[in-house]
Design goal:
Strand order of the largest sheet: 3-5-7-10-11
Number of strands: 11
Order of helices and strands: EEHEEEEEEEEE
Helix content: 10-25%
CATH class of the domain at 41-129: Mainly Beta
Largest sheet: 5 strands, mixed
Structural class: mainly beta
């Protein structure tokens, strides 16, 4: 059975008989990725009016982090699109413009004003939780 990846955190599920002699490295990577999901902080510099959080299989990525700190000079309101998975975020908007959080394919968005830190939960929708 080949290695596959989890839906929400993109952790490696090692297939039976896979990675003989190297599975320990994959396991350690998975533990680091879990730590990133629980305590990670990503600083993201925005330069345009849209930004997509792209999940990656088995390696560090921005959407896995618990806290996302947005900065930069986007030049206008920015729509940030999160992956369509269940995930809790703490979002800090350090730009001069609103940030609109949306999930891929979701029908509800959350506007986070400049200078505000907000909590949101994504499940295909984005809901504000203060």
């Amino acid at each position: 059975m080949a290695t596959t990846y989890s839906t929400s955190l993109n952790l490696a599920y090692i297939g039976t008989g896979d990675q003989s002699g190297t599975w320990g490295a994959t396991t350690n990577t998975n533990l680091n990725l879990l730590e990133q999901a629980i305590t990670g902080v990503a600083s993201i510099s925005l330069s345009g009016t849209s930004y997509t959080l792209v999940p990656l299989n088995g390696v560090s990525d921005n959407p896995r982090n618990m806290v996302l700190v947005f900065g930069g000079t986007p030049g206008g309101t920015v729509t940030v699109t999160a992956p369509l998975v269940q995930k809790f975020y703490v979002i800090t908007n350090n730009t001069a413009y609103n940030i609109i959080m949306a999930a891929t394919g979701g029908s509800i968005s959350l506007t986070i004003p400049s200078g505000i830190t907000a909590q949101c939960y994504c499940d295909g929708l984005v809901e504000q939780r203060h």
